[in-house]
Structure formats: C-alpha cells, structure tokens
UniProtKB/TrEMBL annotation:
A single GO BP: antibiotic catabolic process
Organism: Mesorhizobium australicum
SUPFAM superfamilies xref list: Metallo-hydrolase/oxidoreductase
Lineage of origin: Bacteria, Pseudomonadati, Pseudomonadota, Alphaproteobacteria, Hyphomicrobiales
Family the entry assigns: Belongs to the metallo-beta-lactamase superfamily. Class-B beta-lactamase family.
Domain Metallo-beta-lactamase residues, every copy: 29-228
Name used for this protein in its record: Glyoxylase, beta-lactamase superfamily II
Length: 343
C-alpha cells in the first residue's frame, strides 16, 4: 500500500510541510504546497481558478493557525493551473524567476474563458481546449504575477526553517523553479514532474529537463510534491526522465530524415508510455525536440493554442475518450458553462 493516498485536499508531510493535491492530475488538476514554521508561512503555487484556490486556502486555515496570513507565495512557473489564484493570496510577497514573469500572460484567463464558452468558433483547437478545461471557471481572474524575481538560487527563512528556491528553467516552461526544504528532505517541483501522467515540453530544451531530473535524483530528497499526480519519490522522477529520453531517442532519427514533427509524432513508438494519461501531449514535446535538434541561433516562439487541435487528433488516434469524461458526466459541467455564458 502506498504511503500517501492520492486524494483531494491537504496532506501533512510532517514537520510543517504540506501538500495540496487535486486528483486525477490530468489537464488543469494541479498540486500546490505550504511550508510553516511557527507563525511564518510560504505557499507554493495557487490553483487553476478562484473557487479551487479559495477552497484550498480555507482548508489550510481550518487546520493551520499560521495559514490565516500567507507571508510568501512562490510560483514554480507561469502556467495558469499554478498561478490563476494568486490574487487571493493578499498581502503576500510573490516570488518567481524572471522567466516566470516574462511568460505570465501566455495563457490569458479571459481568452481561455472565451474559447471554452465559444469553442466551435475556434475550430478543433477550441473544442479540445473546452474538453481539457471545462471543469474550471476562468471568470473574475486578474493575472497577478510575481513582484520579486530571482536567478540561480535564493535562500529564504520560514521561521527557523531554510527553504531554497532553485531556478531550473527553461525546461518544461520558460521559468521553472524547484522549492527545496533540505532539513525535511522535501521538494516541490511544479511541472518539472508529472507523476502518473504524460509531461509536456512547452519550451525545452528537453535535454535540459532531463538534466534537471538527474539533478533531483542526486538531491537529498525523500518526499516530492509533483506539479500533477500523487505525492512522489525519486522512482517517479526516474520514470519521467526515462520517458523524456525515450521520446528524444525516437524523435531524433525522424528529424534527421526531414520528417514534419506532426508526422513524426504518429511514427514514434511510445511503447509502455502509450497508455499513460494525456499521451497526446507528445505532439508538443516532439515539436520542441525538433526545435532543439535544429539548434537555430534564435529559437522559434510558438503560440500554444494551435497545438490543441493537433493533440485532439492524436488523442482520437489513440482511441481515448474525452478528457475529464467521468468527472464531467458526474458534475454536469456542460450545463455549468452554459449557465455562465448566459450571465
């Protein structure tokens, strides 16, 4: 039996370290964390909408008196499922890498909300974005980026507890950071780690991401809070690193043959990774790998939204049902979207 159960809500990791998990870890269901010592608090990431973030804050405050006031919020990177609730952490210092600040508006919540409400107007990309993001409400969100940045490493004290912020982007995103609590051997990775699902390389270089995984494997860490999925160990980091290496090894000869990245995605043998959740993300990772292999003096900047049409096609190719299908059937989220549209 696993030491930690993959259940929604707060999990006490011991000695003032906490994780907040959102199963099943697929599109938008992300994790966050809290570090406490005495009256001092540092929160790791917020969630994908205001309702989820408010619920998380209420959960923290119901069990942890110090959480009534959050001193510091650290964003592991800029993706909305880790930042869209920032506005609710009032009065906190918000810290991230410069890459996170630069990347912050890449997914504008008003644009995502409009696409989800009017998906057909945006073609296959819009339909798949609605499928991925329909459990969430992007209304009333004000983008609230970090007001303090760091590069390399930054040591912070949470009470008498040392917390180290470690810049490791660009890899998954432009501005990735790890949050490390050395005395407790706890690491919060953001989307450097997807446990049980398929990672997506929005930026790369992928080889750098693999190197970051190796760096984590060499750290004195026992408990890892992934960006998505259950509370993890180094075995999960090793498995994800091996996935990234496998796709890299499969993609390189196809690039050398001059194949288009989308065609190459269908040619790659995913092997044991074919049945992982969100396997359609390989399309984005292969495009990023092809950019890596080209090694151009100036790396292309690619808009994320068009990829959703290609991922939709690939998911159909794999024979998968709709994203969040079971969840959405249970909660009637389609009706929820229509109700919000009518307001």
């Amino acid at each position: 039996m696993a030491k930690w159960q993959f259940t929604k809500g707060m999990h006490d990791l011991g000695n003032g370290c906490y994780a907040y998990l959102l199963p099943d870890g697929s599109w938008g269901w992300s994790n966050a964390g809290l570090i406490v010592d005495g009256d001092a608090t540092l929160m790791v990431d917020t969630l994908f909408d205001l309702k989820l973030t408010a619920e998380m804050l209420e959960t923290y405050r119901a069990s942890i008196p110090a959480a009534k006031s959050i001193d510091v919020l650290v964003n592991t990177h800029a993706d909305g499922d880790h930042t869209f609730g920032n506005q609710l952490v009032e009065g906190a210092r918000i810290i991230g890498t410069q890459g996170t600040v630069t990347d912050f508006a890449r997914f504008d919540p008003t644009v995502v909300q409009n696409i989800c409400l009017n998906a057909e107007q945006f073609g296959s990309a819009g339909v798949f974005m609605r499928e991925c993001f329909r459990p969430f409400d992007f209304s009333r969100i004000t983008l609230t980026p970090p007001t303090e940045t760091f590069s390399g490493t930054l040591d912070l004290m949470v009470g008498s507890k040392k917390v180290q912020l470690i810049e490791v982007g660009p890899s998954h995103s432009l501005g990735d950071a790890l949050i490390y609590v050395p005395d407790d051997k706890v690491l919060y990775t953001g989307d450097i780690l997807f446990t049980g699902g398929t990672p997506i390389a929005w930026y790369g270089p992928v080889n750098r991401w693999i190197d970051v995984c190796d760096r984590v494997l060499n750290m004195d860490v026992e408990t890892i809070v992934a960006g998505h999925g259950p509370i993890s160990t180094k075995d999960d980091v090793r498995e994800m690193r091996d996935y990234l290496q496998h796709v890299s090894d499969e993609a390189r000869p196809l690039w050398e043959q001059g194949m288009d990245y989308l065609e190459a995605s269908y040619k790659i043998d995913l092997g044991k990774y074919r049945d992982r959740e969100d396997a359609e993300r390989v399309v984005v990772t292969v495009q990023t790998l092809f950019d890596d292999f080209a090694d151009a003096p100036q790396r292309p900047v690619r808009a994320p939204i068009p990829y959703f049409a290609e991922m939709k096609g690939f998911r159909h190719h794999l024979g998968r049902g709709p994203v969040h299908e079971a969840y959405c059937k249970a909660c009637g989220i389609e009706q929820g979207f229509r109700a919000r549209e009518a307001k």
